[in-house]
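Q: Glutamine--fructose-6-phosphate aminotransferase [isomerizing], please. Structure only.
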Amino acid sequence: EKGGYASFMLKEIAEQPKAVADTLLGRIDASGSLSLDELRIPDAELREVDKVVIVACGTAFHAGLIAKYAIEHWTRIPCEVELASEFRYRDPILAARTLVVAVSQSGETMDTLMALRHAREQGSKVLAICNTNGSTIPRESDAVLYTHAGPEVAVASTKAFLTQLVACYLVALYLGQVRGTKWGDEIHAVIRELAQIGGQVEQVLQTMEPVRALARSLADRDTVLFLGRHVGYPVALEGALKLKELAYMHAEGFAAGELKHGPIALIEEGVPVVVVVPSPRGRSVLHDKIVSNIQEVRARGARTIVIAEEGDEAVVPYADHLIRIPATPVLLQPLMATVPLQVFACELATARGNEVDQPRNLAKSVTVE
Ligand code: F6R
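A: Structure for Glutamine--fructose-6-phosphate aminotransferase [isomerizing]:
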């Protein structure tokens, strides 16, 4: 069943280019526009949406955090992202024009299910982004956009995460398309790039040997820190979550701009710090700021592991280890940058003798609140 791979997790990491392509299949028409009739929410209603609220747990929550950047940029609709387990207990503001998006691989996560029930009771429409046909969350939602990752067996989510991102981008781009925003040209360009993205994920997978060797060399450490900005911040959180759950190590993700507000005190000689560097194009201000952050942590003894786009030469002098990813539009970068972090966590956990498909204390779907 593992198709020659040592674990389901490795198999599922390798399946990502196909999972991403399958999730796009049939959703981009010949003219390069999105067609999401399957959503079953009329365009007229989508034009009326005045707030988007995303609810999810764990890795799916990280997909939601990334979706916020895309939704607000391409649609100008305010978007909140909330841990499903917190949502209904704080009396959230929900109305008929609020679109609630529930993201869940399994479709059975109790926290997410309770959050969407709460939203529907308040009169909001719920769109599920889900990987499991006919599961409870899509059955109880008003609409569903399925991710087509195929069955995910390993407890740690990998291919489902990438397809959740694709589905979130599709929702954001589609909302932009039906509402018509000033980003029309950009939306078309991004749809074209998205159509090619599976090939780029494959390119990343082909260059992972140095990442594996690096992970093995860090097997005896007890802390790894992750930094990112903009959409790279949730990627940092996801990298840290993977390492916690698989390697049982202390791992934390931070927004790089927060370093000076506290976390920099954690930096001491030899601490590995993984930095997700935003594209030097587009958001170049952020790029330059993060290069300064890399210098700052390195000056305090950190061992810097830098994930940066091909052609980004500014990071080279400060990277103890440099992981290259293909250049992509700024908002799509998480589809590239997450992959090395999955490989890193999987290899490090294996080097520590852990069972990567079945980490201790965890279950694949959490059906209790
Ligand atoms: C982490 C992981 C979990 C799940 C979370 C939500 O690798 O797998 O954090 O992402 O339990 O699960 P779903 O998406 O099934 O609702």
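A: Brief note, in case it's useful. The beta strands are 51-56, 79-83, 98-104, 125-130, 143-146, 223-228, 250-255, 272-276, 303-309, 321-325.
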